[in-house]
């Protein structure tokens, strides 16, 4: 078994979340659970910085993304999908199922979307109704400027779908701040929660569009509408919620609010900054083309020439018990991913990451100056004092 | 908060399941989790009495039913849906989304399907390709003769979808025994597990039909196909499984196998038999028209004339802390449901149920001879000695 | 395994206590634990209705009683021990190890101490310095009038040791209210906590006496003095506290304060009252000679002539999964004990108790009108409306 | 709150232990618990490499040491206590309470006992009946040659008390291998268990001596005799065992047996070796005078001149969230202790320890070459390949 998991998710949950998971399972229609559910949803809204209760879908975030596409995108819609990585690109496949035309802006997967390009496209194609963008494209470890993109969309009256699955809770990103009409996130990444739920914020404009979409699913696990008012104690659940996952969500969100969001973001940022410093000091290359687009919640490292990513990950796991994530899709084999999410978003884990990565590379005959790497991590931590 | 929950589900999970829920969340692609997942699926197959690994869908059983309809039923298919209750009837709505024609046999919701009627219909309509039936129609507390129906279907080369959500694990019903081609069940009813997963057995014939169905979903949370081989450690998960729910499933199934299925069924049966005896001895009426179709896993009681079901349930909860389930759909207000599933499938809980139900009715001015009811429960327990 | 435990302790812990037990074990000298410990002790003081931080001894309550005797009783002391049951009598053995002379008032073990007898004895023997009394003598299910006795002791300037192990938290008994100088209780009875700790309130007068006693233990697990100031974060623990048990104590006390002590006592009292009514209505005899001395936290029932207590308990466990406690010492075989402590101090468990006891007796050929018993329980519950 | 605890105990418990702690609390006299207790004790005996069921005392290991002294040492006995550290020295205080004469061999607390000195003393004082020795004197991080000492004692027919509290489970030390007549250990150090119990092996010779000692306690929490046969399901517990702690002990021992003792010792040894290499490579000094007496379960580092130990520990905790132990007694302020016990007995934690210690020292203006330290840790890990 691994000793320390530094994956890009699912991540190690906080102990308080694990304890919440072991709460007795209760009958979902009992008033005590209905009130608990309401309280959890309202608390989640608070964490999202909004007064609108989010929809909690009873499955992991891909359900939220698939459901968002199905609900929001009508048969007459032109959708602009921004693809700066595997996840952003992937959303296009769901969008294409429902829309009249899918337009894309695509950049290399070690780069980020330029807001100007979005602005230009929206001018060129005034028929675009919906834009979709991934904030932190996890397989790349890069972030897109969703705040700027959201403002541009609003100016063009374009509805925006933002995938903030692996950034919300670890970075300062909130649906209303970034003008997101649908904002999908997860309890199991930066919130250090469990993996079986998905949080979907839907703006008033988005609900209006969904209500007007005859193809928006109902009577389906894919339905946003079915769950729209499920947070209200006087409304029946459309089907059984995942009781234990709700217990876990409650604990994860409470834990986040108790620690203080700013403090949580700060330790995610410091851990990532220290990790990047260590990686570079070892003589390795970050995957993103420039540091300003690196996520605070995962660090991606280019696989050194002559080595195989699987061998590096296996060696790190075998020697040190440290687990990293592989690349995905077209990036498989090109990079190694180090997660900084939830309980491991702590600078000491940057030491662990740099040592295990460098040690594994060195053991395989690569070049990695681990001593310099760890010194650089410590210097970055010093810099935060 | 309630003290004793005798709902028709979700039910109180076994303590060993609650402990399993608090296991550390692990990275799903780590080999240790992949092996754990395989082991859980194979163990679940064993509990189902089959060598075929079931598909585990990452949501509650309605996901499995919706997914089964979407995968199996093609645009040219004629489907025979058997409706002896709200759940059986409800499946027809999913079936109707996909089929050319939906045929139904419907009986009053306090009765069960007659296998002869099925046989007659299949003779009359040889174009029927698929039959769907709910074994225990939970809102009614009645069971359909799925074994006989399955044999008839096989004789007519008709594929069968069996909803065994609230019977498997508490009664002797297994996919291959009843000739089910798709058999959907839940960890959170008679297995006393958690609510966030669904177990779907798919026969070889059903897979062949699904493979031939161009509309069978892929790249979707609704897809059976995506998860078909996910149990194999060398196959990547299509999306993130609900790690904690898998931990819970493993514990629930292991607990079932450790206690011994026959012993588990026996205590479900005895609890239900004792409960029915107590209900009748109090002078109340069972909902089903005859006792031979009563489920071993829930007892439904007709609301006495002049009383309201909600008042009865509230009084039972307020006075005694005992929670029952309400009716659903067209049965709402007509009956009260007492669950006998998992940890509460123990005869002593028949005493609790009878006392709380009778006490509540008496407190509301109804007639219920609680003393006679409890004596009858004890006599039924004696009868099992 | 048993299904429902109605023992006189250890009792089933509340779920919140079980979750607290699973908190990570922390280094006892870390400031975070030292603060947690302080907070737990102060919260426990609050529950005791006093501003004096109690001593938490790291073992079950007999440790507290043995330690109290060793610390308080000096070689020149005359001690009056009140013996109305096995536990009260038993304290005399510890007292006798340390005192010059042990005086006892003993009554039959189905009766309680008369305060007048205490008053008379203290007048007759003005050299008595210390009195010891058990509030709820658990093996008998009887309570002594500790409030009256405490007042008499105070008037005679006699120090009082009160064993409130199985009454505090379920009845209105607090050290300063009853003039107790040492008051020993447990987290694992009415508080529904864990079994590994003991709570010892020590008055200022008692500390003065202990400080003056050269034989009071130090450097020992038996020492009250070693732990006197351990609650202060700036004082080192004399040895390692039971970290997980402290977690459990914190949860148990918080749970008690959250529910509200009056509400907790009320449900203990109602459960006991209903249970006694049911027992009598079945035609069985309570063990105590009169109902006014029956404890709210356990009901003791005389074994009917011709039956064996072990057979009754075994039959209740085998048929119904219900566990009762046996008698102890000289009372073994004469009575059966039904606990009403913590989570099972709920009237519905009086139904369970009466049914299982009566059913077992009837199954063994004895006479017990279970129907009448359950009706009487319900009537008692009605009476509380 | 700390992030990573590398204390010398209590240590972070294994997750499986935390889950076991959350098992329902059961009535201790129920047959199911009595069998569980027996099974736990026999499993513990297996881990100790003996067929003799150990005594489980219901408190932390100092209870075991105090109880051992009280039971074994009679008023006529001459006891030889070996003092190479605070804990060894401390046992002398308990021994002195009971013996006729206490003889000591004392060496500086950074050194270990020479078996020849023991041999010489036993020759010189043939009236010595009992020898006491601490295997790993935790405050010093040094180990005594208990195997050699035990053999010498046996040759002189001297009974031996061995304190193996912080070595058993992390090193190859077992009571019969080292001729220990009383062998005291803990679930909460190298076994990664909970803190509230103590394991005491007692040889047949020791029981004979105890039985012959009229002062051996009975009717006391200090009594070994009371608990001697408590493991037998047909013997009543003398007082209530700490139910949850027994659950935890069972899990900790099972976990140890499942992983395989040799594998567990190997990772303790490798972690310690790597840690020592890192400490030295940073330019710091180990506390023990020579590496051959360093424990596998804790590394002690001399506080560099000009720095304060408390400042170092606080800085490590504040910057990195890493907790170390302080010195104790006369060693307070002279050294910092790094634990390698249970779940943190993994080489990656030597990286964490070296980095946090070196980083803290450097931050305080001391000299510590962290880069070289981490490289040395990795080289040590490489050496184990």
Automatic annotation (TrEMBL), chains A, B, C, D:
Name the GO terms of the biological process aspect: glycine biosynthetic process, by transamination of glyoxylate
Recorded GO terms, molecular function?
alanine-glyoxylate transaminase activity; L-serine-pyruvate transaminase activity
Q: Which cofactor does it need?
A: pyridoxal 5'-phosphate
Name the domain of life. Answer: Eukaryota
- N6-(pyridoxal phosphate)lysine carried by residues: 189
Q: Which Pfam families match?
A: Aminotran_5
The record's annotation in SUPFAM superfamilies points to: PLP-dependent transferases
The positions annotated for binding substrate are: 337
Q: What class of enzyme is it?
A: transferase
Keywords of the record, alphabetical order, are: Aminotransferase, Pyridoxal phosphate, Transferase
What EC number(s) would the UniProt record show? 2.6.1.44
What's a GO cellular component annotated to this UniProt protein? peroxisome
Please list the residue ranges annotated as the Aminotransferase class V domain.
101-283
Family designation: Belongs to the class-V pyridoxal-phosphate-dependent aminotransferase family.
Which named protein is this? alanine--glyoxylate transaminase
What's the source species for this entry?
Answer: Geodia barretti
Origin organism lineage:
Eukaryota, Metazoa, Porifera, Demospongiae, Heteroscleromorpha
């Amino acid at each position: 078994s691994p000793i320390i998991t530094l994956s890009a998710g699912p991540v190690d949950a906080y102990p308080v979340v694990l304890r919440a998971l072991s709460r007795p399972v209760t009958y979902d229609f009992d008033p005590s659970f209905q009130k608990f559910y309401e309280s959890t949803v309202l608390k989640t809204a608070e964490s999202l910085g909004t007064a609108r209760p989010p929809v909690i879908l009873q499955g992991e975030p891909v359900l939220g993304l698939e459901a968002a596409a199905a609900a929001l995108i009508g048969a007459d819609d032109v959708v602009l999908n921004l693809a700066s990585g595997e996840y952003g690109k992937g959303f296009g496949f769901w969008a294409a199922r429902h829309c009249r035309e899918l337009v894309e802006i695509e950049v290399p997967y070690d780069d980020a979307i330029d807001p100007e390009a979005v602005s230009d496209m929206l001018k060129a194609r005034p028929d675009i109704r919906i834009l979709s963008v991934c904030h932190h494209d996890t397989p790349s470890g890069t972030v897109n400027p969703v705040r700027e993109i959201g403002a541009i969309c609003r100016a063009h009256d374009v509805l925006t779908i933002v995938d903030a699955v692996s950034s919300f809770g670890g970075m300062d990103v909130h649906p209303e701040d970034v003008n997101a009409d649908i904002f999908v996130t997860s309890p199991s990444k930066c919130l250090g929660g469990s993996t079986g739920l998905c949080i979907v914020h839907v703006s008033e404009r988005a609900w209006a569009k969904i209500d007007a979409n005859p193809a928006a699913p109902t009577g389906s696990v894919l339905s946003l509408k079915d769950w729209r008012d499920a947070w209200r104690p006087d409304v029946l659940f459309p089907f059984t919620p995942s009781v234990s996952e709700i217990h876990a969500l409650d604990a994860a969100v409470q834990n986040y609010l108790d620690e203080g969001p700013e403090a949580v973001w700060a330790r995610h940022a410091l851990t990532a900054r220290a990790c990047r410093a260590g990686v570079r000091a070892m003589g390795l290359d970050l995957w993103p083309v420039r540091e300003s687009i690196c996520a605070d919640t995962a660090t991606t490292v280019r696989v050194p020439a002559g080595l195989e990513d699987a061998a590096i990950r296996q060696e790190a796991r075998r020697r040190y018990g440290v687990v990293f994530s592989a690349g995905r899709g077209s990036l498989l084999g090109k990079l190694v991913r180090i997660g900084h999410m939830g309980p491991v978003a702590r600078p000491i884990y940057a030491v662990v990451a740099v040592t295990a990565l460098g040690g594994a590379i060195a053991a395989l005959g690569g070049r990695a100056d681990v001593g310099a790497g760890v010194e650089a991590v410590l210097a970055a931590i010093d810099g935060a004092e």
